[in-house]
Fold this protein.
Amino acid sequence: MSLVRLRPAALLVAAAVTSLAPAAGAQAVQQSAASQRPMTWLDIQHFRSAGSPSVSPDGRWMLYTISTPSWKDASSQTDIHLVSTERGVASSRQLTFTAKKNETQPRWAPDGTWFVFLSNRDAAAPASGAGSAGSAAAGSGGAAGNQLYLMRPDGGEARKITEATPGVSTFAFSRDGRWLVYRAGRPTQEQLFALSIADLAAGRDAEPQQLTKHPTGVGLWRFSPDAKRIYFVTADTVDKDERTRTEKRFTVAIRNPVTPTSSLWALDLDGRRTSRLTNDTSYSVTDFTISDDSRWVGFRALPSDRYSRGITEQGIHSNLYLLDATTNRTEKLTGNSEVGESALSFSPDSKLMAYAASDDTTGYNMKNSRVYVRAVAGGPWRKLGEGFDGDVSVGFWSRDGRTIYFNEGIRATNQVLAVDVGTGRVRQLTSVQGVVSADEDEESRRIILSYADPKSPQSLFTVPTIDRIADRRAWVQLTNANPQVAEIALGEEEEITWTSKDGTKVGGVLVKPVGYEPGRRYPLIVAIHGGPAAADLLTFNGGYGAQVYAGAGYAVIKPNYRGSTNYGEAFKNGIVGNYFPPGYDDIMTGVDHLVAQGLVDSTRMGVLGWSAGGHWSNWILTHTDRFKAISSGAGTSNWISMYAQSDVQRNRQYYLGNKLPYEDFDAYWNQSPLKYIAAAKTPTMIHVVEGDPRVPSPQSVELHMALKKLGVPTELFMYPGNTHGIPDPRNRLLKSTAEMMWMDHYVRGTGAKFAWRDVLKTLEEEKAAGGAAPVAAEAIP
C-alpha cells in the first residue's frame, strides 16, 4: 500500500489538519489564518510518514509505523503506534520509543492478543549517514542487524525472541496458528527458521527450528493458505567466484551480467522435505501467488537470456504460468512478445484467475490495460473493461468473486473503481477531489484507504466494507502524522482545463499564490511532471514543492500535457512519433490561458521539471524565449546518445517512431533539443545525479557545454549517487533552494543567482527552532 511522506519537529502544534477538523467559529478561523506562515523547503524535509498498516484479526485495531526523518544525516527513525479502527486518530498511542533505533513491520499474531516486529534496537549503531535500518530490513541478509521482538498491545516492554546472525530479513505467521517463520543468514545463504507460536504466547523461550538447508539459500517465500507448505524461489546455482571477486574488491560493474536462473521450490512442513517444482532452464522464476484453496500457484518467469533479465524492460519479456500443486503439472498461460503482464490473481473460491495486460497483446504498445479472466480449470480468456477509457487492473476481489476492485487516475484525481467480472463493465465508486486508493486486509476484510488532497497530507482511513466507500461520513481517519500543517498557509489549488493549439482539451492543476488577490498578475512557475506517462494530481504539495512557491508569491501551473495518463488512451499516445510538439503546445497554451485570465504576468515566468519534465524543459529552452529562467533536472538533450546510455530503450524507441536509432537517426535527431540549441537564450540551471541510470548525466553535460559555449547563463549541479532521483535529503534541500534562488533572480529580479549562505542558513533556522525533535504520532487538540 502506498502511504505517507511527512514530518517531525519543533514546529508541530497541537491541532488537527484544518481540512479534516470541524469548524470552530469565524473568530477562531481568523485567528488561525493570522498565525499561519508560508511553507519552506525545510518543512518538506521534516514531513513524517505513516506506513506498514497491520489490522488485527478482528478488525478493531491497526498497528502502523511513524518514520521521523533526520535530513542532516540522511536517515530516519521509526516507531510503532496503535489506533482503534472505530474511534480513529483520537485513540492513537505510541507503543515503542527509541531515539536512535527502529521498530518496523509490525504484524499481529493469529489470535490478535500480541504482535511481532523487527528492530535493530540491540544492534551496533550504524555509521553516520547509513540511512534507515527500517528500509534495509526488507533486503536480504538481515544486514541492518534486525531481530524479532514480541509485544502486547496493552503496553509493557518488548521481548526479544530471535538471535539470528547477522539478522532477520523477513517473517510471517502461519494461518493455522502454529508457527512464526523467519528468514535469516548471509546474502545468498539465507535459510528459514520456525518458532512455536504456542511457546511464544505462553512466554516460554522458543528454540528456533531450522526448516531449510538449501545450498543456494531461500529468496522470496510464502506460506500456502492451508499452512502445509512454504513455497520459495531460489537461484539454481551460486557463482562462488563472483562472490569472492567482490569480497576481494574487484568491484567493476558489468552491464547485463550473466546471472543464475531461479526456480520455484516447495517445503512440506510436516515432513520437512523440499522439492523443486520447476525444472525448465529456459526461464527464470521471479515471483508467484497462491490460490486460497492452496491448490494452484501462479508464477511469473523471464527468459533465461541475460539481455531479457536485469534490465528495466524485463517486465515486457515475462510470461505467466500455472502450477497444479497436486500434480506438479505446469501450464504456460501467456506467450506474448514485448507485452507486460501483472501477477496472477485468484478469486476467493479459487475457481477463477485474472491478470492485467495491454488491450493489444500482439506487440509493444501503450494501449489501455485490461483485465483478462479465465477459469482455473481451463477455457478461453475473457477481456474485462473494454468500454472504459483508462487502465483496468487487479486490486482485490469481492468475497463472491463477482467484482474486482482497483485504483485508477481520473483526470487530476485518483479514484477507486470496480469491474464486473461477468459483464466487464467498469464503475467508479469514489468521487473525491483528491487522491484516494483502497486495499483490503486479507484477514479482517476491513478496507484501508490512503487519502490526500491539496490541504491534507496523505493519511490512512478505514471503512468496514467496500460498499460504504462512497460515503465520506463512513470514513474513519486513522493517522495524522503531520498536524503542523494547520499552521502553514497554503495556496488555493484547483483543476483547470484549456484548449490546445489543435483543439485538444488539456487539463492540469493550478496553485494560486498564498493571499491571492483577483485582478493582480503574479509571476508564474511552470512545473512539468515526469513520466511522461504520469499525471499531476490534486494532492498535497505536488509539483516539486509547489506550495513553497505559492507561499513566496508565485502562481504555479502543473500541466498534464499530451503523453500524460488519466485523460484517455488517445491523449496518452498523442506524442508517439512526434514526441515534443503536441506536449509543448499544450504547455504553452496553458500558460496563455492564465495570462488571458489576468492571473499571470507574462514578463515574469519560469519553467522547471525532472526526468520527462526535464526533457520538456530542454525543448522549451530551444523553442521559445518567453521564459526568464529554466531549471532542467535529469533531462535529455540528444536522443541518439541517450538511447545507448540509458537503462531504458523500448519505450523510447516506441515514442520516437518505433525504429532503432541505427535504422533512422533522423527520427531521433529531429526530436532532440540539442539540434536546436543555437536558438537557446534563457538562463538555465541543470541538475542531475552523476550515476543516474535512467537519464545519464552525459545528457546534462552535453547541454551545459552547449549553453556555455553559446554564452547562455548556465550552471550544472552534479549530485553524487547512482539513482534517477537525488538520494540524499541534504542535497534535495540544496537543489530546491538553489532552484528557487535561480527563479527569484531571473524571473523576479531579486537576490543572487545562487549563494551558499541561503542554503547554510537553513541549518541555523533549524537550530533556532530547537532541532527536529521527535513528537508523539498524533497531536490532538
Remarks:
- Residues 729-748 form the longest helix (20 residues).
